[in-house]
Amino acid sequence: MESYLASERIQLITNLKDVVGRTCDGRRPMNVVFIGSPACGKSSFINSFSASIADDYWREYAFSGGQGVGRGVANQITVRLKRFKPTEYVTSKRLQGYALPTLIDISGLHEGEGGLTEEILRLLFYGQLKENTNIMSVYKYGKERGLQKMRAKYWRWFTNNSDKVDRVIVVASATEPIPQGLINSVMKAARPTGDKYTREIPVFGMLTKFDQVDESSDEFKNRKATLFTALSLVGVSHRIGQCVNYCDTIDPDLTRTKQTLPDVDIPILRFMNVVCGSQYEVINPEESYRSIYFHEAAWDLLTGMVTPVMCLVLCFFISCAIAMLLVK
Ligand SMILES: Nc1nc2c(ncn2[C@@H]2O[C@H](COP(=O)(O)OP(=O)(O)OP(=O)(O)O)[C@@H](O)[C@H]2O)c(=O)[nH]1
Ligand SMILES: [Mg+2]
């Protein structure tokens, strides 16, 4: 059984190499961002994926952890936006030169105010948020000063297409209720239906902490169904994965610091083979946040000027009328 798992793992890594291609053939590492509630396992997933393609053992690139159950926001581990490039997390010589994805880790998001969250996600997806940005500070700024001031503060003049997000993975813990409000904001920002924003990004889902639930329970089945519906992925189950991440609960003896665990790796590799598939494309990839922001700002300026100009014209005519009356 063990050797069967090991060979399946190797096969999936080989597939992944074919799926992502080589940078020398012009393939660019795509940017994959992980979004979910605090402590749902985003950073652990990044470390688990890195381990799943490693020749030797698991390493902790993205800090993960927690302070136990019920500590509220104190549980927040990732604070700043961090991009893990393949040059940082790929250790196997056999994978050097392949366009494996850049993994973007951000802090867990609370359900919060939908409109603000949606705009923050948009800034993120259009590559406006710099490395080390504290998303909670962006949210706080927006809450105190308003959405427009937040946009004005965080948009950037120069951004490349390579800064933009190419894939969104919504991470949800199998042990917690699905954050439907947050997923709704993700969907609005990633798959806009109006005409203002038209850049569309493929969205995927990953259920973590699978070891902590009874798969046959109604509670779990309902939770899974809710995730499918929230992500509009009913009937396309291959775009939602379920996994157990490398962590103390499944590996209390820290075997992972000496070797990888193929049974943990396989579901993660299967899922990432799907996520990285070139058949999923970003629609209108060139669209920039700047162009939309400027278009709106120019329109606001124009409409803002109409009233003062009308007042001036009116004052001019009234003054002329009074002057003519006085002359008579
Ligand atoms: N049992 C179990 N625990 C997990 C799993 N994935 C993550 N954990 C644990 O959940 C806790 C939070 O994991 P993180 O990866 O830090 O979660 P996060 O989403 O990055 O959290 P924030 O950055 O704070 O938003 C840690 O104690 C992990 O060990 C899993 O699949 N099973
Ligand atoms: Mg984290």
Describe this structure in words.
This protein is an alpha/beta fold and 328 residues long. The chain folds into two domains: 286 residues, Rossmann fold (3-Layer(aba) Sandwich); 40 residues. Helices cover 43% and strands 9% of the residues. It has a six-stranded mixed sheet, with helices on both faces. Helix 1 packs parallel to helix 9, helix 2 packs across helix 9 and helix 5 packs across helix 6. The radius of gyration is 25 Å and the shape is elongated. The mean pLDDT is 93. The site of magnesium ion has 6 residues, from helix 2.
- Per CATH, the superfamily of the largest domain is P-loop containing nucleotide triphosphate hydrolases
Total helices: the number is 10
Along the chain, the helix and strand elements come as HEHEHEHHHEHEHEHH
Name of the CATH architecture of the largest domain: 3-Layer(aba) Sandwich
Strand order of the largest sheet: 2-3-1-4-5-6
Chain-wise SSE layout:
Elements: H1 2-20, E1 31-35, H2 42-52, E2 82-84, H3 86-89, E3 102-105, H4 114-125, H5 135-145, H6 147-154, E4 167-173, H7 180-190, E5 203-208, H8 218-230, E6 240-242, H9 262-275, H10 289-327
Helix pairs in contact: 1-9, 2-9, 4-7, 5-6
This protein binds guanosine-5'-triphosphate (GTP) and magnesium ion.
Keyword list:
alpha/beta, binds guanosine-5'-triphosphate, 10 helices, 2 domains, 328 residues, binds magnesium ion, Rossmann fold
